[in-house]
Amino acid sequence: MDEDDVGLAFLPCLIGDADPGLRRVGDYFMADGPWVWVLTHPQLRGTARVRAFTKWMRAVLERDRELIEGHRPQPRVADLR
């Protein structure tokens, strides 16, 4: 590896853990408060499609919280072959 091949970036664990060319450096941190915001236009907030989306998104984020936060690494693509 050359010096040019080194970089540092904050990535969601869900993305970084899946790439075999990346590795974690140090501990991760969690911001206080909500970790995802879903913003909607006030006039659309009460529509069925927006309510359905936010309900679905909440369920997905709750289901996959450990994966998203990096407590449960996702399998790497090479591991699935």
Q: Work out the number of β strands.
A: 0
Note the overall shape. elongated
State the helical fraction: 25-40%
Uncertain residue segments? none
CA radius of gyration: 17 Å
Structural class, from helix and strand content?
Answer: mainly alpha
Number of domains: 1
Q: Termini, distance in Å? A: 26 Å
What's the helix count?
Answer: 3
Report the average pLDDT across residues: 77
Largest sheet: number of strands, sense, barrel closure: none
Percent strand = under 5%
List SSEs in N-to-C order: HHH
Assembly of the depicted chains? single chain
Protein name: Transcriptional regulator, LysR family protein
Organism: Plesiocystis pacifica SIR-1
How is this structure best described in words?
By secondary structure, this protein is an all-alpha fold. It has one domain (7-80). It is 31% helix and 0% strand. It is built from 3 helices and no strands. It has helices at 13-16, 48-63, 65-69. It is elongated and about 50 Å long. It starts with 12 loop residues before the first helix and ends in a 12-residue tail after the last helix. The model has no long low-confidence stretch (mean pLDDT 77).
